[in-house]
Amino acid sequence: MSSQIEDISINFEENGVLLQKELDKKILSKGAWATVMFYYQDYDKASESYKEPKISIQRYQKRDGEYIQRSKFNISSKKQATMIASKIKSWYELTNDEIDSGEVGK
To answer: Which segments of 1-106 are extended strands (E)?
Structure first.
């Protein structure tokens, strides 16, 4: 656990091997509830190399001065990430008239 959201990492090491390697992170929100997006890779023991990067969006709650992970959503592939980003972009490009007329989802 950590008392500062900036100190939280997705790195996970076991027996001297970094099984989950953080490549980057973005703090999306701070406060009693914080949201952090991690860009990371998992280690493949069979090939002894890192797999394709993934993204994890994690929510933390600060309790008794420490941040505790409460939920997470993993984006498991570049294809899935592209689909999510494309849909979010299209929703935010809608005009108020399109939203009011029920054009969303058509």
So the answer is: 12-14, 17-29, 33-44, 49-50, 54-63, 66-75
